[in-house]
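User: Teach me something about this protein's shape.
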Amino acid sequence: MTIPTIRVWLGGSFDPVHVGHVAMLQHVYQRLRQAAPHAPIKASFLPTAGSPLKHSPTANAHRRAMLQLVLAQTPSLNLDEYEIHQPPPVYTIDTLTAFAKRYPDDVRIFVLGGDSAASLHHWRRGDELLDWANLWVIARAGQNDTAAQPTSATLTQFFCRDQNIISQQVADLINTHQNLILIDDFVPPTIASRDIRAWLARLGQIQLAPTDNMARRDALLAKLDAALPPAVLVYIVQQHLYGVSSHLPTSLS
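Assistant: First, the predicted structure itself:
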């Protein structure tokens, strides 16, 4: 008997990809590997060509290159380029419908951060996502301490399902193709790509003199070192992305 492939997608603009994104997808992959040690697992970043709820992203070639730098260091993860080849705006419901047709016999899991799960009512046909895949909600991802956390009750109410759709068992998700949600209490690093872009833009505006500007520069670099995979930060500096200028330390380039 052929074991179906477990396909997992973490969607986003990845503009830029940061350590929080990597931690989320690695965590999901590792939990699936523990639950299904012999099953083929394909855990993929799914960069979008453009979200109707966000800014226009950086060029596909740059975002793809940064993700490939991450994959070179994390061989268990993959890149799915389906959405970046679709004309924007791209809607998750259309993607999951296409994946269900493309992989009808495989287990399909779409990963959401808590902030995304809490905003599903803004998504196009967000209440239909479970018709095409299972959802893995990392409740604390993208949330601050005061933000409302997605709960079993709020998600069940939103999806208007008669049956119990909430599970705490990974095994449940890999034994069915849709209509289940796993709420995971894993806490990834609290980082937002928009903050990284703001730090990089501020970095690009700082001149090397006077001395206090050097201190500000070093403080921003420390934040970026903690938020970005090293190869991604080097790439951003080399390509002068997000307003970064050419006067940064040569050690980065």
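Now, about its shape. The chain has two domains: 6-184, 193-239. DSSP finds nine helices and seven strands in the chain. If you'd like, I can walk through any region in more detail.
User: That's plenty for now, thanks!
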